[in-house]
Amino acid sequence: MAAPGAPVTVTVTYSNEKHSIQVASQQEDGEPTLQDMAVLIEQVTGVPVPFQKLIYKGKSLKELEQPLSALGVKNGCKVMLIGKRNSPEEEAELKKLKDLEKSVEQIANKLEEVNKEFTSIQKGFLAKDLQAEALKQLDKRIKGTAEQFMKILEQIDAILLPLYVSKRLLGSIYF
Fold first, then answer.
1. Which of 81, 79, 77, 82 has its CA nearest to residue 8?
2. Please, which pLDDT band fits residue 63 given cuts at 50, 70 and 90?
3. Is 114 helix (H, G, I), strand (E, B) or coil?
4. What value, to the nearest 5°, has the Cα angle with vertex 21 and ends 17 and 25?
């Protein structure tokens, strides 16, 4: 049996393909988890984690936070994958979403900086005669950030969701 925290080598069967993967923990000093393995399987097979069904010894592995050892998965084990890869069109749209997510995070960081500056002005850390100019600058930055958010919303609106995602999101809405 592998030492706690040591990588686990597993053979994953998907369709007619076999992939030997070495699963290491993403947590420092932690054991490899099912999540660690699923992410690695996505990289190797192209099947996204939410669409993976992993089967080991006839049982479906579902608890992503569980260590592989708790699920009985050891070095040399064979795991079967059932799932669907995204089409190239879906991959392109997902990449757009990931890029937009990064943009939103950057804008959120800018807003945090503006908020910190505003809070310091409120607390009196800036001389009274400089406050008006500083507030004008903050106002410009906030308006620019709001405009960036609007552009991102327009880009999100233009993204074509795959049919199965659209149906799932709109499942309870009747037209």
1. 77
2. very high
3. helix
4. 145
- In the block, residue with structure tokens 């069967």: 13
Alpha-carbon Rg for the chain in angstroms: 24
CA distance 115 to 158: 30
**Token match 């992939």: residue?**
19
Report whether 96 contacts 155 (CB < 8 A).
yes
Identify whether the C-beta of residue 17 lies closer than 8 Å to the C-beta of residue 78.
Answer: no
Q: How many residues in the chain? A: 175
pLDDT at residue 164 tops 60: no
29 vs 121, more confident: 121
**DSSP string of 2-54?**
PPTT--EEEEEEETTEEEEEEE--SSTT---BHHHHHHHHHHHH---GGG-EE
Helix (H) or strand (E) holding 138: helix 128-158
Chain mean position to CA 54: 20
Distance, in Å, from the CA atom of 54 to the CA atom of 62, rounded to the nearest integer, reads 8
User: Token pair of 66, please?
Assistant: 């569980």
Strand partners, 13: 18, 80
- Mean residue pLDDT of the chain comes to 87
